Amino acid sequence: MTTTSLKLSDELKQRAVAAAEKKGVSPHAFMVQAIEQAATSAERRDSFVSEAQAAREQMLSTGKGYEASEVHAYLKARISGTKSAKPKAKSWQS
């Protein structure tokens, strides 16, 4: 494990200390958790964007995509616990 120092404004340090106390952890543990959460969030966003770009490329290369209203209806049915057939990809190009 390596050591990293952070320069925080007095206000931010006090906010971190207060938040750590409320959580019942040390300020150090609070900051480590915060950095871990931020890194995980950034990684998830990067993955989401990469998947979206790949889906877009596939849509452009195949000329097929999904009707938004059908996808929305499918998702609503899934959320409510109703079985629903997955939407089928359709040609969107003339």
3D architecture notes:
The protein is mainly alpha-helical and 94 residues long. It contains three helices and two strands; from the N terminus they run ααβαβ. The chain has helices at residues 10-23, 27-62, 68-80, and strands at 64-65, 90-91. A two-stranded antiparallel ribbon has the order 1-2. Helix 1 packs across helix 2 (27-62). The chain is elongated, with a radius of gyration of 23 Å. The chain starts with 9 loop residues before the first helix and ends with a strand. The model has no long low-confidence stretch (mean pLDDT 95).
User: Average pLDDT across residues?
Assistant: 95
Q: Helix tally? A: 3
Spatial gap, N to C terminus? 58 Å
Structural class: mainly alpha
Shape: elongated
Keywords for this entry:
94 residues; 3 helices; 2 strands; elongated
Brief characterization of the structure:
The protein is mostly helical. 67% of the residues lie in helices and 4% in strands.
Furnish the topology, listing elements before pairings.
Blueprint: H1 10-23, H2 27-62, E1 64-65, H3 68-80, E2 90-91
Antiparallel strand pairs: 1-2
Helix pairs in contact: 1-2
